[in-house]
Amino acid sequence: MLIVDFRTLFRIMKKYISDGSDTPIFCRSVIEMITDLDESDWTNGSDPSQSVSDRTLRNFADRGFSKNLCKKIAYRLTLENLIENINSRPDDVKKALADEFKSYDPSVTKNNVAKKIANWLYNYIKETAGYIDKDALTTKKIKQSSQDYKTKYGNYLLKECRGNCPMKCGKSLAKEINGKLDYVYEISLIEKDKKDGLNNLIALCPQCFSIFQLDDDKTRIKELKLSKKMLSKHFVSEELLDPIHLEKGLTDVLSNLSKLNPMTISVSLDPKEISQKVTDPNLYLLVKNNVTTYFLSIKKIMINLDKQGVIEYEILQNQMRTLYLKMAKTKRSEQEIFYEISNKIHKTTLANKLYCDIVVSYFIQSCEVFNAVTK
């Protein structure tokens, strides 16, 4: 339930933290602080390249945000920015701001006014979007279920999402609390009318979790199911490939590769056989371009580093072949296999993903990755 209506909230905020800006400019500033959405996504304007009009912004300030806008930003809120902005103000400003709100909430002080305002805005956006809080008993049961799921599945689901909220907000679930790193998250059923289990559970940031419990939009559930599927497949691939230790010298290969200037490389290879290994059109173009440009240069780098004892080229070839064979057994698509192997190289070497892709392309041409298609 809202304690302060939006019009009053906006008026008081403008009085103390607008720095003299007029209503449209301050309204735009507030929206930019509380969401990471681009301005072109705030409304349904016919020309997304145009800024939101001053008239629309004045309407927002006077009448509040539209339901459509609130639904768009509910999962993309960055209220921390607003809190930081208010907390950076002088004490006398924060005290005056708090005094304005005391008639609505006597517990407001200069020390908590920023969080109070952020919380009021959050509740306003949530309710305007149509996400109405459930009764206290239901809310308690949902929170208890999340706690039970964390005890049973928490570690697995955190690894699956790699510590980031899979909703559009993408926030890190890791927080520094009293000088220690900890995970702050909740676990939700994806399809709330179905049984729990790893395939129907996902880790979310507390904010997205709270909103999702009130959101029965089938499109949202479909999006989350797709995210879960992708996260799960990638996690399984990482677990499969992790035991394979790549040559330490591969870092030197990638370092040498990064120093090459593609504008000065003499292209002299025509990779005719790639079409016999890669059938995906988009992947074919990527691999062909990489091989045409870099194959001979990488081969030279490999030979030189092998002679210097920096790498064992035959061992590296066998490792790449093993990576491919393990992925091939999982029936992944060509693109999935390509990028999972590239991710493995990236994770091992911390090299730019672009160069990892180029190295995988090299091993496709040299036959360690992908077999020729049987005619």
Automatic annotation (TrEMBL):
Any one Pfam family match given in the protein's UniProt record, by short name: CTD11
Domain of life (superkingdom): Bacteria
InterPro entries per record: ABC-3C_CTD11
Ranges where the ABC-three component systems C-terminal domain occurs: 244-370
Protein name: ABC-three component systems C-terminal domain-containing protein
Naturally occurring in which organism (per UniProt): Ligilactobacillus ceti DSM 22408
